[in-house]
Design goal:
Six copies of one chain form a homohexamer. Chain A is an all-alpha fold. Chain A is built from eight helices and no strands. The first copy, chain A, has two domains: 52 residues, no CATH class; 78 residues, AhpD-like (Up-down Bundle), CATH 1.20.1290.10. Chains A, B, C, D, E, F: Pfam families: CMD.
């Protein structure tokens, strides 16, 4: 993608008008409070009615980051409805596996299982990772996923 | 993940036995020819009956790499059946967008459309990219996706 | 960072209460319209009163992404006041140089010059890149920065 | 690299023919069993006759990934003979150091020492990392390499 | 950036001459000893008069890497004067946060605090990270920064 | 790697002494002029007696970066003698292929050929890239390598 830092004002003046009008659509009246509430609903749905510990741990020192995660990442992006939770979590597991972030992959693999994704489907995502990003991130992700499966089986054995 | 380069031969001797037995399962009799054929079927299904130009372009100088792509990436990994083509392509679009590889994302976004994914669903994946990997790769991916949509609309207008 | 996907409901119930209260602070009444307006002011201030072409180019196909860039990235994050524009752009130039994104680095280097950063200061950031991320991204960034300096000198010669 | 998702069927029809013929070469008759056996020989040669613990640990939960590592990564790619083991391991150590994967670098540095690479040569690779990818991955790699040297000296002191 | 590996000797012959002359400037008489001394002064200024433990730990096994860090990274790049310590550390914190290197970010965040940067300013850099590189590296950086703040507050409570 | 930002002055005071003594070794008397000369010899040896165009192009706007590349990267790191040119270039080709920097990989692949590495050996490095970092960077590297081979064959046909 080539980007230039200037455009002739004539062209963008017009574009800008449409943009300004766009900014007036009712959809844009959502308040920050509504976005935070939407994010809270998403996290509770993904996390079996529990707040997300890492998110809560951020609130004292990093309230802006906690609010941005809840209001933007979860409230705006994650609350959209064109993709279902299963698909969104499968994509996210594949992305964090390929980026070499097994801790984040593990969190979202847990959300995926909560949303009805099977262990077999999660393993398939990791197999794809060998093609997307090579064997090291796939092996690291498989170890994190095996931990998650083990923890959840243990919780089932331990019972309520 | 902590990895150690040595294990006591006692333990791994036993593991190794099971591994050796595993290697004798009928599933493992697949020949390289069968794997290449499976890969050919995958690429033709994804690419509307066409060979993949980038793959074919590699054959003369890099026959091993072309065969590895066709036999391993496509024939072994991509031909598996637990995930459907739609889901596998949506994951791959999300991964290549997040990794900052818009050229590869564009190829797989085309496969996704061929597999029945909608333009709206592909846009949702790009919105997720802002959370996964930040705004620059999302903006670069959106530009590549807009090109793809434009090219395909143009082809429809031009007709057969 | 180790993250666990569950916490005892007792502890997080309390945390959650404080979070819920937090969500009621007046600061959170900002509407999407106000955020978009804040983002518009930021981009015009950084870009000498011009809209940002890459941003405007996204609006037709990717209105959500354009709004997220304007409302979240610019309106919420970039409009904060603890760091001044000079410092924020110098950091961003250093980040995009190290991440190997010279196109984005060039855009923000232009904003930095508009905010009063000197060419010499921008060069220093690129020198730091050799330590942060090695010589290839530093050399790529230096080429993009040289282009920017050349384009702006040309515009000055061409006059209004 | 510019990639297009379509080519005129005329041209690729011909290319495809040659590809199909290529797929019939004797070299391609290798069965999955033969590939797994080739991979087993590679890992035993690199790892002083021992199976690779991380590989074996994957077999139960991720048999496909273990087989892909053994059959593709080791059996196909690593078993080739144009590069010798010393060179292949030195390259791999340099790559994993630059990619910021000190755990994987450490494993392959151990294989390199087993293949006759000297400690001094491994240190040189890390010095190159400062140029390739900056000082942080080089410093992280140096710490992992120092651990490896220490562990192996300790094993020598402890004796058989 | 497009790079070619050859140029006509005519053109570069001239360029080379100027390069050769450049190499004779007095500024280039600095000895390795002077560079190491300059690096020592930088690290002591940043680290409150203390040597840098990670740097010292490298000296025995990796003297070249320790000298390159002290003589090049610190002595040449970090000792320059166009950017002040505050700005240089803020940039470095933003870069290591975006690159997903929270350990290095934490070290430089400590230097930043030693140089008079406020905790609030460091938090702002992390908020920028959500735009530069997504939420996972920002959240990881926030955890490392919270640890640093906690350690320093503890040291103040413990007193001298 | 865990790093702490403080160490008791007692321990590091001693370490520091040895470091200071180390700084007095004759090896450290090398002047900047000698380092630049060493770098010039390396580039001329690698590039068949030609200056490196990208390096020369940096001199006017970025003399410090050009000197750092020539004096540190080439003069200090690349001029070391424990690894030979063939091995150092093969490692560098593998690293830049895995990092997704085909332009830099192409430059060093040219140096490798100049140092006596065969086309077949370079192809092997690219095959390793599929394991190290996945198929997209390997395919991108193969395209850059095919360009290089074509350019050099063309030059041979064109003759002196």
């Amino acid at each position: 993608m080539t980007l230039t830092t200037l455009g002739s004002s004539c062209c963008y003046g017009a574009l800008w008008l449409s943009a300004a009008l766009f900014a007036l659509e009712p959809a844009h009246a959502a308040s920050e409070r509504e976005r935070l509430e939407a994010g809270r609903e998403v996290i509770e749905r993904l996390n079996q009615g529990q707040p997300q510990p890492a998110l809560e741990a951020m609130r004292e020192e990093f309230p802006f980051l906690a609010d941005a995660t809840q209001g933007y990442a979860l409230g705006e992006v994650w609350s959209r409805e064109i993709l279902d939770d299963r698909t969104r979590q499968l994509i996210t597991v594949g992305v964090f596996a390929a980026l070499g972030q097994p801790d984040y992959m593990k969190i979202h693999a847990g959300y995926a299982l909560n949303a009805g994704v099977s262990e077999e489907e999660l393993k398939e995502v990791i197999y794809l990772t060998t093609v997307h990003a090579g064997f090291p991130p796939a092996i690291a992700a498989s170890a994190a996923l095996a931990e998650l499966f083990q923890e959840r089986r243990q919780r089932v054995e331990d019972g309520p």
